[in-house]
Each structure stands twice: as C-alpha cells, then as structure tokens.
Amino acid sequence: MLSKRSLVGVRLNFHTLAVLFFLLIGTQAFAADPSVDNSDEAVAAGKALFNTNCKTCHRLDQKLVGPALRGATDRAPVELVKSFIKNSQAVIASGNAYYSDLYKEYNNTMMISHEFLSDEDLNNLLAYIEYGDTADPAAATATGDAEGGAVAAGGGIPNEYLTIILGVLVVVLLLILIVLGLIISVLTKYLAKQDLDEDDKEFVSQKTNLGKVFKSDMFVVIVTALVVALVAKTALDGLYSVGVQQGYAPEQPIAYSHALHAGTLEIECQYCHTGVELGKSANIPSANICMNCHTHVQNVQGAEGVSPEIQKIYDAVDNNQPIEWVRVHNLPDLAYFNHSQHVVVGEVECQTCHGPIQEMEVVGQHSALTMGWCIDCHRQTEITTEGNAYYDKLVQIHSDSKDALKVKDIGGLECAKCHY
Amino acid sequence: MKIAKTLSILGIAVAGITLAGCRAGGENQGLEYAPQMYHSVAYEPLTQIMDSETKGDLISTREDGKGEYFNSNINNPHNMNMREPVANTVPRNKQGYLPYRYKAFEIEEAGTSMKNPIELSDEVLTEGKRLYQLYCTPCHGTGGQGDGKVGAIIGGVANLTGGAYVGLSEGHIYHVITKGKGRMGAHGSQITPENRWKIVHYVKQELQGGQNADNATATTEVVAEADQDVSQVETPAN
C-alpha cells in the first residue's frame, strides 16, 4: 500500500517540474527582435565570435560577469544594442536610461569596447545570442556532471573495498588456524587411545608442553634482548631527533590549502613565493596577493556568502593588520641558506627539499634540514654548468678528473659557505 | 629481585618513550638542543618570536624583562620587524628603473607614452614565456584565451588573443600588469619591472602576433575612448 502511494507521488512531482521547465524556457526564448537573422550560418559564425570575445563574461541563459544575453534585442532596439556592443561606455555616456541603469546594476563594471566588429559580425553575434544553443543549458550541465562522476568513480579500487577484502582474509586465516587446532587435538586424542611404542608416546605428549618453553633460559634471553634492542632504538632515535623538526605541521591562522591552490588550481609557486628566484628568502605572500583573486572569489564552489576563512583575509586588509602565519621551516641562526642559489643556479625543484607541497592541506616540514642532509646532497648532486659562463673556467680545470663536477667540488662542503 | 628487575626495565621503557616524544610532528615543534644558538638576537624579516612572556632557562641575560627569545621590534606597528620604505624615498636598482609614476587610472597616458626598454630577442621571448606561465596562466590560460583554471572561477578574464585586445599598446599592457584594471588586480608587487617588460614582449609577439607592437596611435585611441569619462572625472593636476 505504502510503496504504491509514494510511487504516484514521485510521478506527480516529475510532471509538475517538467511543465514548469517548459514554461520558463517559453518565456525566455521567443522574445527576439524579428529583424534578427536566424539562419544556421549566421548562428554558427556568431558562435565563433562569441566564444573568442564574449564568453569570459557572458552566457546566453545565465548571469555571469555580465547579464544573460538572450532577449537583448527585446530589451533594447537592435541598432542601440549594436552600438552598445561596439562601445558600451559611449552609449552609457549618451544618457540612455536602460543601459545606464544596467551599468549601475552591475556595479559599474565596464564592458570592454569592440570597435573592430563589422556590422556583419554584429548581426551574426545577435543571431547567436537570440537563436544559438537553444538546448536547455541545465540539461547540458547535468550531463557534464554525470560524466565527471563516472570518471571519478573509474579511478581504481576504492579504499573501503580494500579494507573489506583485508578483513575477509583475516577471518579466513583465523578459521584455518581454528580448524588446524581442532585437527591436532582430534589427532592427539586418537593417538593417545592407540597402542604406541615409547618413542612415539614421548613425541606426542612432548608437543603439548608449551609452558616449559616459556620458562627455558634461552627464551628469556631472547625476549630480553629483543626488548632491550627495541627500547635502545627508540631512545637513540629520540636523541637523534632532538633539534630536528621534521614532520612539524602547525595549524595556520587561515586554513589556507596548498592542495587546493597549488594542486587543483595549478597556481605556480612563484606566483606567491615571489622571492625564490631573487634572493635568500622565498617570502610568504602578503594579503594583496591573495586579493588578486579573492576580491572576486568569496566562497568555494560558488556557494553563497563569504567563507569564514576568506573573511579573515578581508579583515586583515580592511584593518591593515598583518596575518601571523606560523613559520614551519626554520634553520638555526648559525646556518645560512639561499633560495635563488638553489632554485635558479642549481635548478633544484621545490619538491626535492619541501616534498609534495601541492598535495598538502597543511604544510609540514618534509626534510630533516640537518647539516647532514645539506652535505649529502652537495656530495651527490652535479652542478648544471651549461649556459653558465661563470663555470666555464672551472669546467676546463676539472676536465682532467674522471668524476663529474659536483657541488662539493666548488666548495659546497666548506664550513664558511654555510656558517658565518 | 624480581621487582627491581621489572622496575629497571620499566624505567628504560619510560625513558625511551619520553625521548621518542622529543620528535616533532603536528603541533609539536620538538625539543631543541641549544636554543640560544638558534634564535636570532637581531631582528629578522621573516622570522620573529612574538611571545614576550615565556622566560628562558637559567642563563637568560635579558635586561628588559621580556621573554628570553623575544625578538620583535616593539617600536613598529603590530610589533612587526618588516617595515615599508620611508615615504617619499626612491629605491634605486642596477637596471636604473625608477618607481612607476602613473596612477591606476592614467592608463591612457601610460599606453601612449611608454616604450618597451628591453630589446626583443629569442632569449627574451623564452624568458617572457616562462614568466607568463608563472604569473598569468592561472587566469589567462596557457594560450592567453582567458581559460585558466582560476579564470574559469573568477569570470570576466580578458581573452588576450581576442579582437578587443590584440591592438593594445605595449605600454598599456605594462600598465595593466603593474596597476591592474577593472577585475584584474595589480601584479606590480610580485613581478620586477624588467620581468614585466619581458612578459609584455611575449604577450605582444607570441599571443597577439605582433599586432601594433610599435604602438600605432589608431587603435590606442579606441581604447582611450572607452576609458574617457573615468580619466576625465578623476585626473587631478598631477
């Protein structure tokens, strides 16, 4: 009874939705000025023009930076629309009420002028704007999403399955153990009832005597040795880790994520860490660099309102208050390290020293940053001399040697290069 | 006897575990061996200890009663060690670039009067391309078509290869990078003047096919017209 009723309910809902949909499209699509060309060629030519010149700001049925364009020729006379597209500021300056209001509505966002468009171009554009891509855009995005989902799901065995498989394996192993134990006990019982000679009897009864093994000297010695070795190892490891901050990953005042910015959005490291190629310090970006994007991006995934984390950037900018990022990598004052020397001259990737930053939600110290770590790399790494006239003479002198020219050969192991 | 043995083993175990706790990880910065040698006494630009309360160990020699490692500059706003340059001073550099004088709205004057001081060469173009990839691709995309990953989210990014933009003068592009325009923020603080001119070369020659590279006036007038009322309203005497 119940299931039947709910089924009917679903169907009814679907109908109302579908009807609503057609109503909406109906009101939107058929309000073009009759003088606009609706031939396929014009629409196709207009589409190409639209994609190169207008797509970053406009969609046909959706508000973006500028308004949804379909119906533009209904809202204003065709000739005026054309001159607006060519030079919007001139039309607004001429005092046209509709466009002046629109300009205000869009927070005085200037539409760039398109003087280079010929009259034919404009006609084609309008044809596309009014008659192009009439397929319902919501459906298009829906199929897009579905494809995205399918791709995501196709990527290897999901983690949960692995855990389930592991669990099953463990259960099976336990079952086998129990069965084996049962077999042994059955067998011993059976053998005990049999008539056996002395040797065999001893063998059967000896096996069950585990307690003796635990008490034997050998066992105690082995276990003590193991425990001592383990404790000694943790103690030594502990001692060696004094003064090494590998793994330190403090929480930051803003939940800024490298995985999102440097990973997903593929923003290059140098965009924010502007000093790496210029000098010693890589620099932490000041808030104005965040604001290049976050004046517009106020929340993730286009959600409404301002994300509380991004609000912190706005507060910092409004109050001229520095953001107190917690420093992660920090060499002691007694050592000198220079970024441009390694990144520009040495051509070492950031990831070699800092690890997979582009996958980190919170930055942690990946390398040990001990003196041994620096020296190891200087012993092993060849220097790039190609196209660097500074090294020409050195290469010449070194050409007698069998080994490649390493950092150690140019003084990378000398105390005073790092300590002064 | 047995109790003593267990106790000693337990003791070793506890010592081991405590030492293991010195290891850094998460919020724990780990134990330091000789902190007096590690923390700078002088003011450092990118590292400063703001904690003025925590007293040091036995041998602190501070006379101002602050925490042992406190090295923030109390004379600066927010106790910051970094400061902006003194007002009205002029930074000088080897290339002889002077500070950029045009105001953000003086885009028209900048566009017509500035010339690219860097000579065009293959090297400059390769370097310009690399720099463009670093600083512009997030929004303008690799090909300059306004289809970068961030650009798709921000919206309204100019298609540098589109008809409205190919005629821009080099000075105009330089001004836009330095001061920003409309929805694009100012990138002057991130890119040195020299590198900005290299990017301009790349944008002009490779993305825009060299159109109007020598800054013909015909098309700049068009651009000027679009911005006319803004500059008329706001341009002060200077």
UniProtKB/TrEMBL annotation, chain A:
Membrane spanning stretches: 161-192, 213-232
Domain named Cytochrome c: residues: 41-133
Keyword Metal-binding: yes
Gene3D superfamilies hit by this protein: Cytochrome c-like domain, Cytochrome C3
Pfam families linked to this entry: Cytochrom_C (PF00034)
Alphabetized PROSITE patterns for the sequence: CYTC
Domain of life: Bacteria
Signal peptide: 1-31
GO molecular function, one term: metal ion binding
Transport is among the record's keywords: no
Sorted UniProt keywords: Heme, Iron, Membrane, Metal-binding, Signal, Transmembrane, Transmembrane helix
UniProt-listed InterPro entries: Cyt_c-like_dom, Cyt_c-like_dom_sf, Multihaem_cyt_sf
Protein name in UniProt: Mono/diheme cytochrome c family protein
Organism field: Algoriphagus yeomjeoni
TrEMBL record, chain B:
Xref: InterPro entries: Cyt_c-like_dom, Cyt_c-like_dom_sf
Gene3D superfamilies: Cytochrome c-like domain
Residues spanning the signal sequence: 1-20
Keyword terms, alphabetized: Heme, Iron, Metal-binding, Signal
Domain Cytochrome c: 123-207
This protein's record includes keyword Signal: yes
UniProt-recorded Gene Ontology molecular function terms: electron transfer activity; heme binding; metal ion binding
Protein name: Mono/diheme cytochrome c family protein
